[in-house]
Amino acid sequence: MDRRDAIKTLSLGTLAASFAMTGCEQAPEEAAKQHKFWKHVTEEDLEKWETQFFTDHEFETVRQLANMVIPADERSGNAEDAGVPEFIDFMMLDRPENQTPIRGGLSWLDVQCQKRFNKKFIDCTEQEKTEMLDEIAYPDVARPEMQPGVTFFNRFRDLVASGFWSSKIGIEDIGYMGNQPYDWQGCSHEALEHIGLADKKRSTA
């Protein structure tokens, strides 16, 4: 399983758990806000997007980082293609409690890259960026001094995953087709046999 599929599996599991906890009558608040973004923002809006919360430098960092979390593959585009950076920018205003952790985390990332490579994250090579993310992407093996970055990246990765797999591209990537009529063929012979009704089915056929 590659990184993209692993993130998808974790994200869908989290979303499913959220719906299970809230029941069928009402979607989770978070899902409702995601839906509000994708419902009202068009592709043209994304192309002309002006940042609502992030500085230009922060937004470029978000863009590059999001594309590393969900890169393009043979099935669909990357996080940027799906409009995830804009989604995260929107969510900073819609969920203000994310503002300080995300902005602080982006700053922390730049400080760490400055110490290691003498440049900010967005100016690093792909190899340098990967080396930096490897330090914070795996909580179980991260060094203690990397914990602020681990906490930030966990939150950021959740935002990227939530944005991507609630977007048009993400839904198509999953293969979701909406509610479809189900062609019920009756219980299988194995199922009937398991509950002791297989012979009864034959006798009434």
Automatic annotation (TrEMBL):
Pfam families: Gluconate_2-dh3. InterPro entries: Gluconate_2DH_su3. This is Gluconate 2-dehydrogenase subunit 3. It comes from Fodinibius roseus.
